[in-house]
Amino acid sequence: xxxxxxxxxxxxxxxxxxxxxxxxxxxxxxxxxxxxxxxxxxxxxxxxxxxxxxxxxxxxxxxxxxxxxxxxxxxxxxxxxxxxxxxxxxxxxxxxxxxxxxxxxxxxxxxxxxxxxxxxxxxxxxxxxxxxxxxxxxxxxxxxxxxxxxxxxxxxxxxxxxxxxxxxxxxxxxxxxxxxxxxxxxxxxxxxxxxxxxxxxxxxxxxxxxxxxxxxxxxxxxxxxxxxxxxxxxxxxxxxxxxxxxxxxxxxxxxxxxxxxxxxxxxxxxxxxxxxxxxxxxxxxxxxxxxxxxxxxxxxxxxxxxxxxxxxxxxxxxxxxxxxxxxxxxxxxxxxxxxxx
Amino acid sequence: xxxxxxxxxxxxxxxxxxxxxxxxxxxxxxxxxxxxxxxxxxxxxxxxxxxxxxxxxxxxxxxxxxxxxxxxxxxxxxxxxxxxxxxxxxxxxxxxxxxxxxxxxxxxxxxxxxxxxxxxxxxxxxxxxxxxxxxxxxxxxxxxxxxxxxxxxxxxxxxxxxxxxxxxxxxxxxxxxxxxxxxxxxxxxxxxxxxxxxxxxxxxxxxxxxxxxxxxxxxxxxxxxxxxxxxxxxxxxxxxxxxxxxxxxxxxxxxxxxxxxxxxxxxxxxxxxxxxxxxxxxxxxxxxxxxxxxxxxxxxxxxxxxxxxxxxxxxxxxxxxxxxxxxxxxxxxxxxxxxxx
Amino acid sequence: xxxxxxxxxxxxxxxxxxxxxxxxxxxxxxxxxxxxxxxxxxxxxxxxxxxxxxxxxxxxxxxxxxxxxxxxxxxxxxxxxxxxxxxxxxxxxxxxxxxxxxxxxxxxxxxxxxxxxxxxxxxxxxxxxxxxxxxxxxxxxxxxxxxxxxxxxxxxxxxxxxxxxxxxxxxxxxxxxxxxxxxxxxxxxxxxxxxxxxxxxxxxxxxxxxxxxxxxxxxxxxxxxxxxxxxxxxxxxxxxxxxxxxxxxxxxxxxxxxxxxxxxxxxxxxxxxxxxxxxxxxxxxxxxxxxxxxxxxxxxxxxxxxxxxxxxxxxxxxxxxxxxxxxxxxxxxxxxxxxxx
Amino acid sequence: xxxxxxxxxxxxxxxxxxxxxxxxxxxxxxxxxxxxxxxxxxxxxxxxxxxxxxxxxxxxxxxxxxxxxxxxxxxxxxxxxxxxxxxxxxxxxxxxxxxxxxxxxxxxxxxxxxxxxxxxxxxxxxxxxxxxxxxxxxxxxxxxxxxxxxxxxxxxxxxxxxxxxxxxxxxxxxxxxxxxxxxxxxxxxxxxxxxxxxxxxxxxxxxxxxxxxxxxxxxxxxxxxxxxxxxxxxxxxxxxxxxxxxxxxxxxxxxxxxxxxxxxxxxxxxxxxxxxxxxxxxxxxxxxxxxxxxxxxxxxxxxxxxxxxxxxxxxxxxxxxxxxxxxxxxxxxxxxxxxxx
Lengths: 341, 341, 341, 341
Prior knowledge:
- By secondary structure, chain A is an alpha/beta fold.
- Chain A is 40% helix and 19% strand.
- Chain A has helices spanning 14-22, 35-48, 61-72, 86-89, 94-97, 114-126, 153-165, 177-181, 190-196, 226-232, 241-250, 255-276, 296-303, 331-340, and strands at residues 2-3, 54-58, 77-82, 102-105, 135-142, 170-173, 199-203, 213-217, 280-281, 289-295, 306-307, 309-315, 318-324.
- Chain A has a seven-stranded mixed sheet with strand order 2-8-7-6-5-3-4, sandwiched between helices.
- In chain A, α1 packs across α11 (241-250) and α12 packs parallel to α14 (331-340).
- The radius of gyration of chain A is 20 Å and the shape is globular.
- The model of chain A has no long low-confidence stretch (mean pLDDT 97).
- Chains in contact: A-B, A-C, A-D, B-C, B-D, C-D.
- Chain B binds chain C through residues 70-71, 74-76, 99, 131-133, 135, 224-225, 227-229, 231-232, and chain C through 70-71, 74-76, 99, 131-133, 135, 224-225, 227-229, 231-232.
């Protein structure tokens, strides 16, 4: 079976495994204090253009979101997100589990609009009963979004400006950051992200690592005792080397972007095939996730040969499905899909 | 520098890395639903003699403790632990972070006493103001304990009997389970643990894996929607295969016990050297952690060549330090220690 | 100044104060175990037609919502509410503070629709990624709603039927229950509420008491150790007598309904005046809260003589305001309002 | 039956009821924004000698402890308390329910020792694994303690000095503050408490009110949005007037201290009788709670005429019981006890 199910179906990029082998017998101190974590931090700082950035490595996206958000919010604050935001829908209530509300804004292909954010914040501070309500304490975005779409630089800067005006941090979930940075429609580099956001993370799990996300506080602005809050949330890996070695490898000789570019190239091939076969697109995604609408019987037939994700019911006879590429997608697989369609 | 700092300083047992390489390109579904997780579950079920056990893989010990404890307690309940229990002292309040109190009992070389547990439970239910207090809802033990010591089978059964009497589950933290199972003073096998406890975990991180703990509910007794609670706690690894492949390897051809036995053998050699050099033992540990009391200036000198853990101040001129062996400890390292002492 | 600001601006109904005086020197045991609480419970059981109901007295609405909801939900569950539901908007995130998500459904004049609830639940259980989402574990309604509107008996029964089908409890927030029960548009009695809902509360604070809400589990179905969870949430009043005496009084000789009926009568008078003066109604409310749209300059003028609540901006020149009646509203006050308009 | 069960068995001091009557029909805004709350705040500020104090009224002790502690701690911090501290033992885990650990120190008749506190804090900051532990973020004391004992001014100042040194606030639980202030062994006034502590509360429930505790942040140092956190914890009373009127009355013409002095006088009479009857005292308490050890059969006989509290088993044939006086204790009741003994 060929799988376009997600970008986390295969193992790690071979260079990562190779480095894990090479370093396996070296003794390293635990919890992210080892030399590989430090090397990785320095390379990421350089790639971000942020020499003073605080950088922490966690194992997965949901825990990263929960730790970052709960450690940066005050008790009386919640986090603003698109109603399709991962934290609002697909993390089993992990944010609420830390005691904070997700304040949902309308979404447009996975994105929020700056003017609606502004109106929301204005309205909140004009409301006479605001003291009985959850204070908006952070804005959460994903880049690319859960629908594969991208904020334009201008949009991101506008949102960041509103955040600054209201003195709340802007947090960018970069679980698939690489695919945004290498999309053909990109207009930002990593250093732009680091300049515009107050905190973000560079996703490893979905971009060629076995696991791992690198949280970046670009301006040396990590909350006090962030390390202890990682531990308290059960998100501190004893063998931190596992994360350090992987990110050190990903940020050596541009591997992170190379992996991302390859997956984008595969996604473009995939789109070409899908268009050629007159598949109907649910939306136009410029990254490695593609959403198409399939007639149900066609979907069932395809399922026998290809693995993909159910996304949602479109109507009684059609379904939205998702196909995803990654570092390990092969051109033959896309060819095979063409034949099957 | 030679390191006896902990059993999580080096990478993974070579066989694990080899299997990660061999399987790297296979597409696998995420979140623990892959074929390797399933294989690993079956092998663990067999090793435990529990054909119906529910088994889940998590990445680390603190998150495992927090997820298991919070998902098995009612809101009004707390968990009983030794006052030196890992959850009481060294997990940054992860249990309280989930809303539950740790109810501390006196410890004796890291162990609680069955009769004191009994007296505590009796006293609680005799107390007329019990409804204003935290209900004891679980007993947490570690095996080996944080001091490397072991409960005898008889002790464990007595504690389990009391738990049954009071209808609360017995949870055994097996972060270093292998070293208990292969200690020369062992009187239990894995199947005994599985028979006596209501839930326990088989530690991977400290027994040769890169990361990973296998939670076992021996009698098909996992709480409803345990999977979702793992997710909610940020403890669900997207590439569950990383855990599945490791535990599949550890439970193939007895590798888990083999690794443990080797580390125990190294610990015995270490003890011999330490005794020969007239080091004073803080307590008698039959597992892979050894605690000795060093005169401070001697400790400082040793530190220049050997890495070990500070444990606690013994008095103004002496310190308790910990030396630990693992799958990667080499006899030469112990020899070198002998020379240095 | 005349106040239509809310139904909790004045003290208690005189009969309540009188009983507090009469009983003041009697020694009573604490925490709701006194004879007045027991008398009140029996009278409420009778009024509800539920001889086995479990009844608990708490001090206020937000704490009651938080205690009831968090004690009836499993960790992995959230509570469904209208997007205008008090718990979603005006309780400062008290539900999320207990770790649970509020799952918002569209509202129609403060009410949810049974068919949308059904569709939501169906959709949830059809979603293949449901295990990564918050399980719907309860339905929360308010009666009357935050907009003064009422569910018809048929609507409530339909919602209850859906809840039973999905095995989740139906919780009715009755902070203003009396006004619903005595509305001219009512088609339910207290016994209907008790028959249809799994848990509800009878609001005292807004219906003539100094404070207090009576939580009713009609079928002897309080969660185990509910008392301790009240305590744990800081919601257990030491002098429980204060609540017992008030509810005993409210449920003696039908005082609760008498108070409610009086306030409804005043609300009808108020509506007549507002209509006569050609005020534009924001919506048609059959209970003691009335919402009208005022031109801003008219509103400002009125503010100098009358206290009412800002509700929300209607547009740049108009505002929605709320006027509320209670046991202490006097006809002269409404007359005075007529003159001012 | 005569009751020495507690200081919250009877209603309110008559002057409080009288004021509730007199003000009953006045419309007042809700949530503590009314004129009586404001008056009470000013009188308390004056009594404390703190013109800038922030003052909030809550309904009961456990909720006050939970709100104050959780709003002043960072996520990674816990609160230090005596192992007999109310928050550690008798609040059903309310502090842990907010996510924070109670860090227990040994107690001596309910008090902690300054030098042990110092040693604990020193030890914590010397511990190399401190980042894996709960940071001590506050010291909680009760005055009088749960055993009726009092800190000397010198002791309190020493503890406060240590807190300042470690930059953590000192919180004094004054649920029975009045009895400490009027004890014959007192060496502090309210203004001393206010000068020495960072936050404390003046208990109303146990000193003549129907309910209510006044939280005082003496130096205008309430946490930002403390109001919203009260609401979020379900601890905001809608009819805040109920608390305002009571505290306004208690702080008019010295009623609070007058009530306290009377109860202390009754406690001294009680002690005289108990001594005369050769009752064995569990400890020497200078406040309104007295602890004596009764032979079990004597206790059973006494129980038929007098209500008191079981405290704990002394041994197989003796029990520690507690007798408490209050504003409503009458000399005849103590005489009657003498006869019965």
